[in-house]
Amino acid sequence: MDVKQLVADELEAARRRSLSLLEPLPDQDLCAQHSPLMSPLVWDLAHVGHYEELWLIRNLTGAPPTCELYDDVYDAFKHPRRERPSLPILGPTDARAFVTEVRARALDVLDAVELSTDLLHDAFVYGMVVQHEHQHDETMLATLQLRDTRYPRLEPPQPAGDPRVVGEVLVEGGPFVMGTDLEPWAYDNERPAHVVDVDAFWIDTAPVTNAAYAAFIDDGGYERSEWWTPEGWAWRNEAGLRHPEFWTRDGMGGWVRTRFGTPEALPVHEPVQHVCWFEADAYARWAGKRLPTEAEWEKAASWDPATHRKRRFPWGDEPPDDGQANVGQRRFGPDPVGSYPQGTSAFGCHQMIGDVWEWTASDFVGYPRFASFPYREYSEVFFGPSYKVLRGGSWATHPSAIRTTFRNWDYPIRRQIFAGFRCARDAARP
């Protein structure tokens, strides 16, 4: 397919997704702030339009902004989320008109540009905008999950899964290539490719399930400080943590989880989600294990020890299909462990792409010889011990915005994101 046609198709697919997520909601829901952790949904919609105008029109042609005020109102660094409802943001009708008008102009520019300069090489800037919109779609899904009312959704039947896949696999020690120089739409924090020597380790074949996490709770996991870091225990007490977000007791000793406003019996074989890093770390200690480093996670997900070659995805180089991973909001939640045997990594790890983001032990830092591109605010300003790395994407992550090298990051206290984890341990330990 022609590169420009591919870009146009990807832009249109992202926009259809954004608008379809918001279409079932009345205007008052779009304008409300459903949690101080999140923006009003209508802010997210206009923000993706402003970002598109900035990068695909103004930076490529020198055109003036549609409105200079938007450079302030829709700048995510100038205004934290809790402030955004008080800003003069566009209403739903005007926001939809704005993103439609920007898209028409951006496609006109696409017709005229030559995909040759640094910003346009391999259509990078277009890939950046496509991924940005899909990332905001996932953020909007997190907002929809935080609402008190039911969100209408149609889902295909859930796979049966296979709980027998739960266990560990040994990942041999030695060097592997971490990061990428080849992925055309990879962000700066995924670059450059570099060799990392990793000691042998064991890693869980599947993410930790709801059943396993419930056993941690039942064993007093939230009442015993010895499983928690000092910072984690302080946060557990300050926030009153007793279980994952959206869990409640059913009155008979079991659990109910609320998914997009609908209470459901807790599905025991699904990966646990809506746990913060501190909770994941405490569980791992209770289980006699630890969280994997992001180098360990990436090696287990991407390295083929038979060919000494890196894979774009755990199963190979082709993007995921319905038999390999639960991505792209096909269902509005994780699938049971063992649902995607065609998507296993060369080491035998299941569901390393999709279902739930996976917390790692690592702080978010730049790789050796890291260089910001095309702006510092995407990655570099977040480097340091305040943020922990997540890998693998979730059921809400679009296929164009995930790969084995993709790095997400967040504060270790965050639970509204679709995050779970798997554990690891040193090979030298029994």
Describe this structure in words.
With 430 residues, the chain is an alpha+beta fold. The chain folds into two domains: 144 residues, dinb family like domain (Four Helix Bundle (Hemerythrin (Met), subunit A)); 274 residues, paralog of FGE (formylglycine-generating enzyme) (Alpha-Beta Complex). The chain is built from ten helices and 14 strands. The strands form five sheets. Strands 12-11-10-13 form a four-stranded mixed sheet. Strands 1-4-14 form a three-stranded antiparallel sheet, covered by helices on one side. A three-stranded antiparallel sheet has the order 5-6-7, with no helix packed on it. A hairpin with a 4-residue loop joins β8 and β9. α1 packs parallel to α6. It starts with a helix and ends with a strand. The mean pLDDT is 96.
**Content-based structural category:** alpha+beta
* Count of individual domains: 2
Strand numbers in spatial order across the main sheet:
12-11-10-13
- Total beta strand runs: 14
Measured distance between first and last alpha carbons: 52 Å
Number of helices: 10
Which value, in Å, is the CA radius of gyration? 21 Å
| Shape summary | globular
CATH topology of the largest domain: paralog of FGE (formylglycine-generating enzyme)
Give the CATH architecture of the largest domain.
Alpha-Beta Complex
Order of helices and strands: HHHHHHEEEEHHEEEHHEEEEEEE
> For the record, what is the CATH homologous superfamily label of the largest domain?
paralog of FGE (formylglycine-generating enzyme)
The CATH top-level class label of the largest domain: Alpha Beta
Q: Fraction of residues in helices?
A: 25-40%
Estimated share of beta-strand residues: 5-15%
Mean pLDDT: 96
